[in-house]
Amino acid sequence: MAGPPASLSARDVGSFAYLTVKDRSPQILTKAIDTLHRHKSEFFEKHGEKGLEAEKKAISLLSKLRNELQTDKPIVPLVEKFVDTDIWNQYLEYQQSLLNESDGKPRWFLSPWLFVECYMYRRIHEAIIQSPPIDDFDIFKELKDQNFFESQESVIALCTHLQELRKTIEDLDENQLKNEFLKILQISLWGNKCDLSLSGGERISQKTNIMNSLEDLKPFILVNDMDRLWSLLSNYKKTRQKESVTRVDIVLDNSGFELITDLVLAEFLLSSKLATKIHFYGKTIPWFVSDTTLHDFNWIIKQLKHSNNKWVSQCGVDWEDHIKTGRWVYLDHIFWTLPHDFSTMSQVAPDLHAALQKAHLIFFKGDLNYRKLTGDRRWEFTIPFHEALSGFHPAPLCSIRTLKAEVQVGLQPGQGEQLTASEPNWLTTGKYGVFQFDGPL
């Protein structure tokens, strides 16, 4: 039997991976350097001369990284001792073992895109942790916060809708409840458009009320397994014993507006009794510009709680309470910021795999999770999603993703070719989305 197809890579000149490594990645590094420059006086106020020296050191390390990337230098091992350093360096050796002698060492424009892109963000983190006393500085925090503040109108509309819905949710018949569930799912999907790594760190936010656009956006959902999600969760609800738990896990993507849409989905699942407990998974370190960390998660809920809009504030109060009572649990794990695809999870992070097996349903938000689910490979468009998962199935799972990378599976015959003919960049603009489900075994 033939093995899986080749990994996406910047060696394919003109591909989205190539353009990312060539243009977007250096742009993100330049913005990171600018951010450090702009915080110079803050570092001095907090730490004196040591703060200035640390800022200079971090800038020098990031400039070196940018130069290595732009001149296609070999990928070098990590040097600063951190919880995942050894795993990263072993993975680099593994990448080396895949190459022919003529290829030399793993390099930016040669090795798999998933590996080199993850490596860049891990090296950004290394530059910061090598520069105490500013070693806890989140270089992307400003951009994430900005995205939240610039999306205020949408946040207010969403929280208002949710609080109004909660008043009547007990009175809805099954069909009405299903319609609301489908609506909230779609809001979570289109919230995934707000991805700062796609824009090269340029400002991007949700300025319009997304709920008014749901009908117009429906034709852009290429794989729609929402009915299967409803069947699964409503069946759990009907058959659940009084004290038993239905747990839904949400593997988060972006902070800012997208995180709000995910929290709204989580609230709806509890209020509708489709679930009784939610586990959220975020990142242990700043990642892919806008990914959610524990600090981002707590910060957003605090911002909502102190809003002068009563419905927004109510959401913040309720969600803080869910955390206190344990109905919502935020977790992180270093596996989410490793370069490994998810089919390796049971070997690389057996504790995380075992935890996910206890979920009744797992939502994987966003594009990076999709790339890791499918191994970021050049699959045919029609390959079944289950096959592309390469044995990864801890529990029923669903990818909720807008397309921002050249990998998509599970399409109908001819569907991908038709889209390519009419819109050559359909895979990478975030215009299209999927709800792709892999159900009970």
Automatic annotation (TrEMBL):
Enumerate the spans annotated as Damage-control phosphatase ARMT1-like metal-binding domain: 20-419
- Write down the Pfam families for this protein, in alphabetical order: ARMT1-like_dom
Q: Which domain of life is it from?
A: Eukaryota
Under the heading SUPFAM superfamilies, the entry gives: AF1104-like (SSF111321)
Q: Which UniProt keywords apply?
A: Hydrolase, Manganese, Metal-binding, Methyltransferase, Nickel, Transferase
Q: Which cofactor does it need?
A: Mn(2+); Ni(2+)
- EC number(s) on record? 2.1.1.-, 3.1.3.-
Protein known as: Sugar phosphate phosphatase
From which source organism is this entry? Rangifer tarandus platyrhynchus (Svalbard reindeer)
- Classification lineage: Eukaryota, Metazoa, Chordata, Craniata, Vertebrata
